């Protein structure tokens, strides 16, 4: 039985041929595929779950600086760039804040204009000292 490696859909290559091309022993390839993930990658997985939680709680508005503060409050000290790298890998992108659009008064309308109530009150009372 010849084992094959699927790198792309439709393209299959034998593991022996790939190992020979890359000048890697087959035993080294199998050892690499079955070894446990490194401590840094395990930490990344833990941090990634916390990042997703914090990102969802912020209604997808927090970027790496704010998420760093969230993780810091939970007792996890992580750098902003590491958070940024993990966010990119997870596909987390914060929503951009909407641009401010001033709402101006429409003065050329045919509606009634409100009466000036201050003019109807009369003179203010005399000042008492």
What brief labels describe this structure?
mainly alpha; two-stranded antiparallel ribbon; elongated; 129 residues
Tell me the distance between the termini: 109 Å
**Ranges with pLDDT <50 over ≥5 residues?**
none
Report the sheet-strand fraction: 5-15%
Return the average pLDDT rounded to an integer: 85
Number of strands: 2
Largest sheet geometry: 2 strands, antiparallel
User: What sort of overall outline do the alpha carbons produce when their principal axes are compared?
Assistant: elongated
Helix content: 40-55%
Order of helices and strands: EEHHHHHH
Task: Describe the strand arrangement of the main beta sheet, using strand numbers.
Answer: 1-2
The chain-level structural class is mainly alpha
Report on the architecture of this protein.
With 129 residues, this protein is mainly alpha-helical. Among the domains are: 4-34, no CATH class; 39-90. Helix content is 47%, strand content 7%. The chain contains six helices and two strands, in the order ββαααααα. The longest helix has 19 residues, at 39-57. The termini are far apart. The relative contact order is 0.08.
């Amino acid at each position: 039985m010849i084992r094959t490696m699927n790198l792309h859909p439709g393209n299959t290559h034998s593991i022996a041929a790939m190992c020979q091309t890359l000048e890697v022993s087959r035993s080294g390839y199998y050892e690499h595929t079955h070894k446990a993930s490194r401590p840094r990658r395990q930490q990344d997985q833990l941090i990634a779950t916390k990042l997703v939680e914090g990102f969802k709680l912020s209604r997808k508005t927090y970027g790496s600086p704010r998420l760093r503060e969230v993780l810091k409050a939970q007792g996890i000290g992580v750098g902003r760039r590491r958070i940024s790298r993990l966010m990119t890998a997870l596909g987390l992108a914060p929503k951009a804040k909407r641009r401010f659009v001033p709402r101006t008064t429409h003065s050329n309308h045919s509606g009634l204009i409100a009466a000036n109530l201050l003019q109807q009150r009369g003179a203010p009372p005399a000042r008492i000292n």
